[in-house]
Amino acid sequence: MAEGDAGSDQRQNEEIEAMAAIYGEEWCVIDDCAKIFCIRISDDIDDPKWTLCLQVMLPDEYPGTAPPIYQLNAPWLKGQERADLSNSLEEIYIQNIGESILYLWVEKIRDVLIQKSQMTEPGPEVKKKTEEEDVECEDDIILACQPESSVKALDFDISENRTEVEELPPIDHGIPITDRRSTFQAHLAPVVCPKQVKMVLSKLYENKKIASATHNIYAYRIYCEDKQTFLQDCEDDGETAAGGRLLHLMEILNVKNVMVVVSRWYGGILLGPDRFKHINNCARNILVEKNYTNSPEESSKSLGKNKKMEIAEAASKVCFAVDIMKQSLSEENYVKLITTKK
């Protein structure tokens, strides 16, 4: 496998993991080997009026030089409405050539559904799904920071910090997730400099329960206005690759000036890849709860800011490629492909 192909494959796998963590059961794997996926998108999760299924197939060249092959499935989506939505998705791709765009596509579709639900016309009847949640939450895991024990060593240097911020930022604690006796809980704090990152970690480790956690994985992103760049870092704390996955999730959600720490108390039973799902789910839940997630338009602008020159040179080439893709893969053939892969 060429180096470029290996890089694309790794980026695809990271995006797939992040999408699964962000959207949970709404994200469905149709064919893992062929990288065909489906996500159910609604205007409102609890009381949906409008729902659409987005099916995507990721070619080997994505995200570097080719867009995902997609299909919009909804009985009410026809004519000009379908064309307008397709044009919006393709415009997002052109504005973000070389970047992972599935999250932007999903949130753009959701935004369209929300706008549609605000109109006077009623939506088609949608059967709501109910399921019983089997999550054990012990009362003593809902943590408040109380001085109990010493602070663990921190690995980063804050000597270059130019902003003097002495005040400890507020720390919020998420709802724990328990699976096979392992418990995961996220903690969040707004930060604007590395010194605050150290202060937050120090305060968290004063709590005996947090200090005794098997792992305290963290990541932070700080936006530097003067340089228009992000200062960001992460820590696995013994859970290999967990910090990088957490940071990648925060990048996809385009959050800024915030740090997230996820504590894991190991229960004696190996969870395999599920542990990463729980870590990211905890992080996403608290970021959404505290309103750190951006709108799809803001995310698109942020991700596309450094791509303007590339877009100008490649736009015509991409449009041609999209047209060829549409001609070569009709809706009927795509449905046959999905059916065959199942």
Mind telling me the C-alpha Rg?
22 Å
Distance between the termini: 27 Å
Order of helices and strands: HEEEEHHEEEHHEEHEHHHH
Which range does the strand content fall in? 15-25%
Question: Given the C-alpha coordinates, what overall shape results?
Answer: globular
Helix tally equals: 10
User: Helical proportion?
Assistant: 40-55%
pLDDT < 50 stretches: 125-164, 295-342
Number of strands: 10
Mean pLDDT comes to 74
Helix/strand structural class: alpha+beta
Description:
The chain has 342 residues and is an alpha+beta fold. Helix content is 40%, strand content 18%. It is built from 10 helices and 10 strands. The chain has helices at 3-23, 79-95, 102-117, 194-205, 208-211, 242-252, 274-289, 296-304, 308-328, 331-341, and strands at 27-31, 36-42, 51-57, 69-73, 172-173, 177-179, 182-190, 215-224, 229-235, 258-265. The strands form 2 sheets. Strands 5, 6, 7, 8, 9 and 10 form a 6-stranded antiparallel beta sheet that branches. β2 (36-42) and β3 form a beta hairpin. α1 (3-23) packs across α6 (242-252). It is globular and about 60 Å long. The chain starts with a helix and ends with a helix. The model is unreliable at 125-164 and 295-342 (pLDDT under 50).
